[in-house]
Amino acid sequence: MGTLLRLVRSVAPLPAVTAGLIAVLVGVTSSAAIVFTAAEAAGADAGQIASWMLALCVGMAVTCAGLSLRYRAPVVIAWSTPGAALLAVGLDGVTLEQAIGAFVFSAALITLSGVTGLFEKVMDRIPVPLAAGLLAGVLLQFGVGLFTGMEGDFVVVAAMFGVYLLVRRWSPRYAVLAALLSGVIVAALRGSLDLSGVRPQVAVPVLVVPEFSWQALVSVGVPLFVVTMASQNLPGVAVLRNDGYRVPISPVIAWTGATTMVLAPFGCFGLNLAAITAAICTGPQAHPDRERRFLARVWAGVFYLCVGVFGATVAALLVALPSALIMAIAGIGLLGTIGGSLNSALSDERAREAALVTFLATASGITLLGIGSAFWGLVAGALTWAITVRRRPKSETETDTETVERPGEPERETS
Questions:
Q1: Per-residue confidence (pLDDT) for residue 2, from 0 to 100
Q2: Residues 266, 54 contacting (CB under 8 angstroms)
Q3: What's the Cα-to-Cα distance from 242 to each of 101, 279, 378, 409, rounded to whole Å?
């Protein structure tokens, strides 16, 4: 019996299982409606919409668990939420078969980016403070959401925050789980947890043969590729590197693209590295031992598989949770990551302004040319870095006193 308990604790530590559950909870509830809207815009019926959810969740489950086990790191894969938003408004005049063809084309471009190593080469040139500022900007809205959610349901959110602080004081590894359970209990007692629309229903894969129309490839496939790479994969890499995980990016990108191509005929429009849900699984809340945090992503894969198989049922269940509860648990789960990102971004005085510009531009939520703020924040920060830091000669004082780089700082160019 003792051996069995040790085995369970080894493969299913409670913090890792909790982090995986919260990541799936936040990921699905925050954007499932956008996926449904995109499927409807493509002309999918109810069975095909369930197939989209099944294909997406199976893809995420396989890549999350497989890549995390392969690299022993919390590699977090999600569907492309900006991609779904793009599809929801950009499929006018495009048939379902043509949309599937565009998904295959976009996935092929992503696979090519991974196989050639081009994307990783670009990421390797991004200074650490800029990557940290990018991540902090992406996550800021969720940290703020912890408190703005009090306007919608003060009792639920305040109870969650209070329980989190108390448990955090005495047993930090269970603080997030305790906050989630308290939120569900309080919501149920207040009558804001409506389960009347939940019905058991198993999703069935529906095959749609892709049709390749050059108009759809250009108007849907190319923009889908761009927003997935710039708005999702880019901050996703920043999350991993901010927590010290040097996972080889090119194979990961290639696998997400290849998996998408295989599952695209069933409705998988785009898989990519996650940022927000990734941060839930890469920090200390997922496991005290950073070498064991990959288990959080393995369990997230298990939960994603459950969501996919019971797609419509689970979606209805998750939608039944109050939005204030979802915002609060996301904010609570990301507090440590946001703090660590800001510390990394602003600790280097010479790069502070560039990192701050990256953070502010990313947090602004600006969208230009259909590309989200993560990309433009990095562009603004890189421009600031190039002008104010990269080519700036050191003063005599800096030359005399800064002979040794502090850990975590980017190397300073001497040319």
A1: 60
A2: yes
A3: 36, 10, 15, 12
Alpha carbons 268 and 86: distance in angstroms, whole number: 14
- Enter the tokens of residue 143: 């940290």
Alpha-carbon distance of 207 to 277, in angstroms, equals: 29
Residues 6+ apart with CB under 8 A from 276: 26, 27, 30, 138, 139, 142, 330, 334
- pTM recorded for the entire structure: 0.66
pLDDT band at 315 (very low <50, low <70, confident <90, very high): low
Could you read off the pLDDT of 53-62 as tens digits, one per residue? 899 999 999 9
- Cα separation, 79 vs 57, in Å, equals 8
Rg (CA), the chain: 22
- 3-state SS class at 79: strand
Q: Distance between CA 39 and CA 79 in Å, rounded?
A: 13
pLDDT of residue 41: 80
